[in-house]
Design a protein that fits this description.
Blueprint (H helix, E strand, L loop, with lengths): L6 H7 L4 H19 L9 H12 L4 H12 L8 E8 L5 E8 L2 H14 L3 E2 L9 E10 L5 H11 L3 E4 L5 E6 L4 H10 L4 E10 L7 H15 L4 E6 L5 H8 L1
Helix pairs in contact: 2-3, 2-4, 6-7, 8-9
């Protein structure tokens, strides 16, 4: 099992249907728009470069990307958007962080509160759980046609802090200082390795294990949160077993 929450990889796999993809593109577009507010030139704006690359990794059309950049750099409503992180507790007192991009924070907080409460959770005060997470860069590399040892060696040479191999040994997660994510991604890409994704996320300092029933409720809660239009990213400190993931996906 990965040393941090599997939620990011679970969510990536569940974006296959047209509806999920459309929702994903909307969320990616908002990320680009927010990043473009501080500059619309990707060469001069690292946050925008990362947001655009993340969209391309998800096969988001270039036209959508261009529109999102223009919205962020123009006068098309981007100023109405706010980035707000909500903190809460899930089943068993688990820590939950929800990053949002919204033009109506009253609507957003009401929707998040409802999802949490229906799963036995609740919103928390600012700072209540955020201290349990660290900001890290995470790069996922496909290992289908590549030696895992070679990927690990190249990642270490590039400056990776930690490397985790998936249970099925089909991919490798490289965890690094957020400031190094772009350079490491470039080094690995130039070396011929296939990059599945790269992002800056919040990783729990420690993961906790729940009984299967509570873990299933928590995973379904995370899915419900992710379905909210204003939600950008979700983090939890729960470690989900393969059996729990399989049960939810049935």
């Amino acid at each position: 099992m990965s040393g941090h929450s599997k939620w990011s990889s679970i969510k990536h796999k569940k974006a296959a249907t047209d509806t999920k993809r459309a929702q994903l593109f909307t969320k990616l577009g908002r990320d680009i728009t927010m990043a473009a507010r501080i500059g619309n030139d990707p060469d001069m704006n690292a946050a925008l470069r990362l947001a655009i690359q993340k969209a391309r990794d998800s096969n988001m059309p270039n036209a959508n990307i261009d529109r999102a950049v223009q919205k962020g750099s123009g006068d098309n409503g981007a100023d109405q958007l706010e980035e707000i992180t909500y903190e809460g507790y899930g089943p068993g007192g688990t820590a939950i962080l929800v990053d949002t991009i919204t033009d109506n924070k009253n609507r957003t907080v009401a929707e998040i509160r409802l999802v949490l409460s229906r799963s036995g959770g609740n919103l928390a005060e600012n700072g209540a759980v955020a201290w349990q997470f660290d900001m890290r860069g995470v790069i996922t590399v496909t290992a289908l046609e590549t030696s895992i040892d070679d990927i690990q060696l190249k990642a270490i040479e590039a400056g990776a802090d930690e490397i985790e191999v998936s249970e099925n040994e089909l991919s490798v997660e490289i965890i690094t200082d957020p400031a190094l994510i772009e350079q490491i991604r470039l080094d690995l890409g130039n070396a011929g390795y296939k990059i599945e994704s790269a992002d800056i996320i919040k990783i729990p300092q420690n993961t906790i294990e729940l009984d299967d029933q509570s873990a299933i409720v928590t995973l379904r809660m995370l899915e419900k949160l992710d379905e909210l239009d204003d939600v950008s990213k979700i983090y939890s400190n729960v470690g989900f077993s393969d059996s729990v993931i399989a049960a939810v996906n049935e």
